[in-house]
Sequence to fold (333 residues):
Amino acid sequence: MSSPEEKPGGESTLTVVLALLVNLAIAAMKLIAGLITGSAAMLAEAAHSVADTFTEALLLTALRRSERPADRAHPFGYGKERYFWSLLAAVSIFVSGAVFSFYEGFSAIFGEPVEQESPIVAYIVLAIAFALESVSWAQAVRQTRREARAESRTIVEYLRHSDDPTSKTVLFEDSAALLGLLIAFAGIGLHQLTGSQLADGIASLMIGLLLAGVAYLLCRTNLGLLIGRQADPVLVRGIGKRLREAPEVEAVVDLLTMTTGTDSVLVCARLDFDDSLGAADLERACVRIDGELRAEFPELSEIFLEPVPRNDPELRAKVLARYGTELHGGAAK
Fold:
């Protein structure tokens, strides 16, 4: 498969578009198979794919709207809008998928018995769906591996620190989709073998729990980014080290960072400069340091350098309250 078409900020729409098309086709097949067989697990899987389709549509909206340039109303840009739409995508997974799966599961377990019909149809649809989902999942894994390798990290480390919820959402939902298909296959198979729809209902409940778990993980990620999460710790340490190396800087008193979008970071550094510097020297030092930071760390979108005395008691109290220790040289002692 050809490499994805990269968007600004390192994003690719190929992963999302491919997942959307795959989920749309699979949702239709599962729904038809669920109506034919009467399987609760198959209907739960249909709801799963419908939720995934809504998710991809929301992610495409996130990609488009978050790339708008900064303006007067939003001077720091629209990067955080990606987190808002991604949060809605996570809610969609829960509402459209998990809740319906729970309903189908409880109906199958406690409701009137329904005779299973044409299970072979369900098996064929599940097999086709697994093959199609594998294509989408493989693309998501390739993108995640490539981006993790670019940052010299393992996939787990990349997913933990990434400020891009899009690829993480697609990877998680595709992984859940493959696992859900296996659960549905087991539920339908046990129903056929035992003649009891209890296994089918339990499988539907398990699919609901799986979707609820994915929705929770994605909601937690996007909540932190919306609130204003600190930038990648590796980046923060690099910025602190670079500031400490500046000849005019005697101490890094405070270092604040916030992720304002994918590959977009705001930095506010409070620095104790050499007292012998004049006003003009201080201005030139700030301009030079700003340029050096931007050259070394392209993801820095806004940089604010504030001269402060290191022994100011009020500022020192704020730093101690935030970090539990003082900062020296950009890293906590």
Remarks:
- The mean pLDDT is 84.
